[in-house]
Amino acid sequence: xxxxxxxxxxxxxxxxxxxxxxxxxxxxxxxxxxxxxxxxxxxxxxxxxxxxxxxxxxxxxxxxxxxxxxxxxxxxxxxxxxxxxxxxxxxxxxxxxxxxxxxxxxxxxxxxxxxxxxxxxxxxxxxxxxxxxxxxxxxxxxxxx
Length: 145
Prior knowledge:
The structure is a single chain. The chain has six helices and seven strands; from the N terminus they run βαβααβαβββαβα. By secondary structure, it is an alpha/beta fold. One of its GO terms (biological process) is tRNA methylation.
């Protein structure tokens, strides 16, 4: 499952929904103006349940109470390189906005924070690209779901 802070572009959300569909995920929680472009999302638009929430924090707290581990994708002083991280099986990947990342209130409820190392410039990946890399890594660790 994926939970997203408000994203700046519908293209990024649409790409994330498409990736989720490709990898067999069925749930995406989005905040803000959560519209997808079906030409970008392709079959993901039909096979992924996109739930829109006004704010992210209440949804995250409920998921945590339901036994999910909240794994944030963010560059922090305590984040773990993605390649060194073993995802819990029952995971929600929490992704911040393109410019702001995850706010402190969201970071405070997370169980883990991972980052994807970069070796050049810019210092971070596009949000849809980074989300895709993380989801693929999770699916490699749990290939049968």
